[in-house]
Amino acid sequence: MESFSYTKVPDVRAAVAAGQRGGRFIAGGTTLVDLMRETVERPGTLVDIAKLPLTGLSPTAAGGLRIGALARMADVAADPRVRSAFPVVSEALELSASAQLRNMATIGGNIMQRTRCTYFRDVTANCNKRAPGAGCAALDGHNRGHAILGGSEACVATHPSDVAVAFAALEAIVHLQGPVGERTIPFADFLLLPGTTPDREQALRPGELITAVELPALPRPSRSGYLKVRDRQSYEFALTSAAVALQIQGGVIRAAKVAAGGVGTVPWKLPAVERHLLGKRPSESLWTEAARRAAEGARPLRHNGFKVELLKRTVERQLRVVGGTR
Ligand code: SF4
User: Fold this and answer.
1) Distance set, CA 254 to CA 146, 227, 250, 276, 279 (Å)
2) 176: helix, coil or strand?
3) Which residue has the CA at smallest separation from atom 1 of ligand 1?
4) What is the whole-number distance in angstroms between the Cα of residue 319 and the centre of ligand 1?
5) C-alpha to C-alpha distance for 103 and 96, rounded to whole angstroms
6) In CATH, what class is 223-323?
7) What dihedral angle (degrees, nearest 10) is formed by the CA atoms of 198, 32, 71, 208?
8) In what order do the strands lie in the sheet with 252-261?
9) pLDDT tens, position by position, 204-250
10) Which of 92, 128, 215, 271 is least surrounded, with the fewest CB atoms within 10 Å of its CB?
11) The pTM is what?
């Protein structure tokens, strides 16, 4: 680990000012400290934001829920309002990392976490995300866990967050505080595709701090849930995952929100699946037909062709679990 300076800030305004001067925000520290130990990250200044008053959850006027950026993963997963209205969020959080990490890691940090691509974390390997212009060792290397959707010639790393998949499905809104004030950004626009600049991962401006993630109200009654497929049953990242929320009234699907994880360079919203579901009655064949559309546009690499079929089966299974068959 290289030497760095460390400062605590008393309020959001001071945090933003420190961020504008090039400081890196740290809260739970569950990703950044690891990366600093491996010298993947070398921040000159750490700005400790852990004590800022951004831990609360509160209902919005429109019936949604605002989750403070510094709320701990475990606390959000256990919150009765999340469990009752957005079980897909609770389930995604509880299937993430380990209990110890969930007790420390925050919601803002979770969506900011960096990829688990092994070449990114190996400072002897070529990696455009860590060192722009260096090349991508994964393209011709071992790429079993990499993306089949959203990749580029520069980078094919997956986004590792589970709860971000639920946020993508639910069309969450990210609240930011920056030097010139507050703004919001749709979650779909917050995480960036790699394109030619995989080192730029979020649509953040200098100094901007995530203050909250807002879950818009779901049409009621809605059911939702998260399925994660991985090589082992705990403390493992997704090979594929599916976040599904459905509103079924009068035996007809009135609203459908679906996204996939483990397969895209960002959490992958599945509008073709959603469109196929709308206005139809749940049935075994409907789940199968809708899920067939999950892998549209997939471009598998040498070692991850299996993800195409696994993605379709993951989505199909979770549609069936959430929607049932009538
Ligand atoms: Fe780096 Fe992305 Fe290539 Fe992995 S996939 S080595 S993160 S550029």
Assistant:
1) 34, 22, 9, 11, 6
2) strand
3) 127
4) 32
5) 11
6) alpha beta
7) -50
8) 223-229, 240-249, 252-261, 268-269
9) 999 999 999 999 999 888 999 999 999 999 999 999 999 999 999 99
10) 271
11) 0.98
